[in-house]
UniProtKB/TrEMBL annotation:
Protein family: Belongs to the hyi family.
Source species: Chelonobacter oris
GO biological process terms held by the UniProt record: glyoxylate metabolic process
Keywords annotated in UniProt: Isomerase, Pyruvate
Protein name, per record: Hydroxypyruvate isomerase
Gene3D superfamilies, per database record: Divalent-metal-dependent TIM barrel enzymes (3.20.20.150)
Domain Xylose isomerase-like TIM barrel: residue ranges: 21-256
Length: 258
């Protein structure tokens, strides 16, 4: 049975971020993920996890200058020092929060730029991270983002990310399989799951097309959850969706998994 993690960046937004840990625990979650921890001291977040008996299972490297259109810097040629700084900071937080997975954001490739150079820059920076994280047993996750969410992101297809994982060639680097993006770009989710089996180490879910609770839209998540059980997937499933209304009003789908 899948282990579900509440995504505190998108769920429980009825309350301030630091109150979402308690809200998620009260709703029955034992695991949490969120985009970025860096606005808060490590000990504040650690206390929130401990007080609510929660395990952190994922967060991202920093986004860069979002106002300027950045969404990760690790693929941007010339920004290697920023990438390594972000990776080092992410390692500090992962160790402090006992978090087993870190998603390294690649970045946007502006039209007309040299895609191959961005790709090689990302490969080199992820290898830097993989070698630093390896001794601590922390996994690195790479994610494809659909163009309607993040135009010109380094990878849009799960197959592009799978190629990166193979080229990077490190034992602790895996695909972050977000079924919302996978359905929007690749489809064929059952066979895709078979293709990625052994190469993905985190899953995220949301309905398509609305990115709401996994109990509506064109993906049959009951089937997906059974598929994950069938292949023996032992990672977490991040609930990275925008609730239709009040978060707790939309948790009927979660009841059988508490
Ligand atoms: O956007 C997503 O699906 C993610 O999981 C990243 O964390 C942020 O782009
Ligand atoms: Mg995602």
């Amino acid at each position: 049975m899948p282990k579900f993690a509440a995504n505190l960046s998108m769920m429980f937004t009825e309350v301030p971020f630091l109150a979402r840990f308690e809200a998620a625990a009260k709703a029955g979650f034992k695991y949490v993920e969120y985009l970025f921890p860096y606005d808060y001291p490590k000990d504040v977040l650690k206390t929130k996890l401990q007080d609510n008996d929660l395990q952190q299972v994922l967060f991202n490297t920093a986004a860069g200058d979002v106002q300027a259109g950045e969404w990760g810097v690790s693929a941007i040629p010339g920004r290697e020092a920023d990438s390594h700084r972000d990776i080092d900071l992410a390692l500090e937080y992962a160790l402090a929060l006992n978090c087993p997975n870190v998603h390294i954001m690649s970045g946007v490739v502006p039209p007309g730029e040299n895609y191959a150079k961005y790709k090689q820059t990302f490969i080199d920076n992820v290898r830097y991270a993989a070698d630093k994280f390896q001794p601590h047993g922390i996994k690195i996750l790479l994610e494809a983002l659909s163009p309607q969410v993040k135009p010109n992101y380094l990878t849009a297809s799960q197959f592009q990310t799978l190629e990166l994982v193979d080229l990077i060639d490190r034992d602790n680097v895996f695909v972050q399989l977000d079924y919302f993006h996978a359905q929007n770009v690749d489809g064929n989710l059952t066979r895709l799951t078979d293709t990625l089996n052994g190469k993905f180490a985190h899953v995220q879910i949301a309905s398509v097309p609305e990115r709401h609770e996994p109990d509506e839209g064109e993906i049959n998540y009951r089937h997906i959850f059974d598929k994950l059980d069938e292949i023996g997937y032992e990672g977490w499933v991040g609930c990275e969706y925008n609730p239709r209304g009040k978060t707790t009003d939309g948790l009927g789908w979660f009841k059988p998994y508490k």
